[in-house]
Design goal:
- By secondary structure, the protein is of the alpha+beta class.
- It has a single domain, classed as Roll (Thiol Ester Dehydrase, Chain A), CATH 3.10.129.
- Helices cover 18% and strands 36% of the residues.
- The chain has a six-stranded antiparallel beta sheet with strand order 1-2-4-5-6-3.
- A hairpin with a 3-residue loop joins strand 4 and strand 5.
- It starts with 7 loop residues before the first strand and ends in an 11-residue tail after the last helix.
Length: 174
């Protein structure tokens, strides 16, 4: 995976729940364009909601993939619902809390709660709620052939899984 929108897995309940965090830093390039200074207005950098959604998709995707020890290729099939109540600013931490709602041979559905931690306020605050659906590519009925290697997991992603205890070095997704 080229772009990682989670930094660390902090809690894992097999077949049930996974929690990950992302520290938002002003060093991230995308924040300088979202939203940059305009006319007399100063810059107001915020984490784009689309990237917050991607962070939840990565978190929930790990949870879904872990059910079968990452033997199946899991892809995001549908964003059923995404509601955002607050912005996330540089210097804050995002917490993605994904819960497995349904799992069968074709795929899974998850519900995720997104929160932000502000070191200024010294508190967690809700950001939004995201409902996602995933599909297992290996169980497709279209007859399409997919490569044997799991194309989603790059070296950085494997390192993240090892650090969380979800994968042993040299074992699991390739």
């Amino acid at each position: 995976m080229r772009w990682m929108w989670i930094d660390r897995v902090i809690a894992f309940e097999p077949r049930k729940r996974l929690v990950a965090v992302k520290n938002v830093s002003l060093a991230e390039e995308h924040l300088h364009q979202h939203f940059g200074p305009e006319g007399d207005l100063p810059a107001c950098p915020v984490m784009p909601s689309s990237l917050i959604l991607e962070g939840m998709a990565q978190t929930a995707g790990i949870l879904v993939g872990s059910v079968h020890d990452f033997r199946e290729k899991v892809v995001l099939a549908k964003v059923a619902s995404a509601v955002f109540e607050r912005d996330v600013n540089p210097g804050e931490t995002i917490r993605y809390d994904a819960t497995l709602e349904r799992m069968d041979e074709m795929g899974a559905s998850t519900v995720g709660i997104v929160e932000r931690y502000s070191f200024v306020d010294n508190a967690w605050a809700p950001v939004g709620r995201i409902e996602l659906m995933f599909s297992h590519l290996d169980q497709n009925r279209a007859g399409t052939e997919f490569p044997e290697e799991n194309f989603v997991f790059g070296e950085n992603f494997r390192t993240l899984l090892e650090g969380a205890g979800l994968r042993k070095a040299g074992v699991g997704p390739r």
